[in-house]
Amino acid sequence: MKLKKRRKGQVSGWRVVRRCVVFFTAICVVPVLLVLIVATDNYMRPVHQRPYLHQQLNHKERVLFEPRLNHNMTAVAKRLEMRRKHLKRMCRILGLDRPGNDTLHRPNPWEFLVDNKHRLVWCNVFKAASTSWMYNFNILAGYSPRFLKKSKKVPMTLARQRYPRPSLQALKKAFNSSISFLIARHPLERLLSAYRDKLQYALPHTYHRKLGNEIIVKYRYKNKKKNASVQRWPTFPEFVEYLVDSVQNGDRLDMHWTPIVEFCTPCMFNFKVIAHTETLQEDQMYLIKKARLERLIKPEWKNPGRGTTANQLEKYYSQLTRSQILQLYHIYRYDFELFNYSIQGYLEVGIPDKDPSTLLAAITLKDFRQNELPKVY
């Protein structure tokens, strides 16, 4: 009996030892296995690349950046609402919201496109994504992308066949039941885009090539400037001289550089969406979703010009004197005010005027367009 008890005690002792070995082994080995499993899982799991946007991209590149699919449209809606309120407030302060008989106070329906079927109203501001939205309106009109690509007709001509110019009464009625919008662009960037597209790169035997030749005769050869340029198109300073003289003489401006305040008379209508080219991609997405047209059209940025205008601003505006830049500001002052743009960055690159009195005269210059109602300076 004693022998049996001794063996039983010995067995119990070995059992304890084994349990201890197993316990300590588990403590040492299991964490290592877990680490290996996690590491292996990380290597085997598909890599999800994060979208990356460099902080130094210019605004045109920001426009072309594809937003995430789950982008928060609420933030865009708030931004657009702030623009609407700013426009209304400035219209009231500048006295531009009161009907009158001049071009600043008379509603102008001439350049509106009204799509009653899709309940969409657009004021076509030339050189402000106009090519892109003319394409979209032609798609909504029933033209196929293939037809538009092959057609030799001007897109505007095709559009007007389906969207005739509305009467003021019909336009006001459409505003009450449609999503109305316009696209604004920095006035001086829009002006440069118009110059490059219509004068610097004007096609032979066109109206703008003829206009360019007239500008050269008047502002290059007639003034007998020393070291006159031999290029076949007007220089940017020559074009600006022509523009300033045209406004001072009360001449009718070309539609590609007419101020938006006269082109669309935004203070005379209640636009629901004020898009900007600087945030065009997001603004377009919001507009298309709001109009429930996602299945028909998509955000577009069709730029047929020679390169990005935003990258050329300093090159061209450094050719102007500061007084010339200030004169341009007074031509487009209402556009600056209504759409909350600034002249900052443009004056700094201008050539300092040799005669201080010239700069002073430009600073104290009143707007070229007469506004009989009170204004704030």
From TrEMBL:
Record protein name field: Carbohydrate sulfotransferase
Broad enzyme group: transferase
GO cellular component, one term: Golgi membrane
E.C. numbers: 2.8.2.-
One Pfam family per UniProt: Sulfotransfer_2
Annotated localization: Golgi apparatus membrane
Main localization of the protein described in the UniProt heading: Golgi
A biological-process GO annotation: carbohydrate biosynthetic process
UniProt entry tagged with the keyword Repeat: no
Membrane-spanning intervals of the chain: 21-40
InterPro entries (alphabetical): Carb_sulfotrans_8-10 (IPR018011), Sulfotransferase (IPR005331)
An annotated Gene Ontology molecular function: sulfotransferase activity
Assigned protein family: Belongs to the sulfotransferase 2 family.
Membrane-protein topology: Single-pass type II membrane protein
Keyword set, alphabetical order: Carbohydrate metabolism, Glycoprotein, Golgi apparatus, Membrane, Signal-anchor, Transferase, Transmembrane, Transmembrane helix
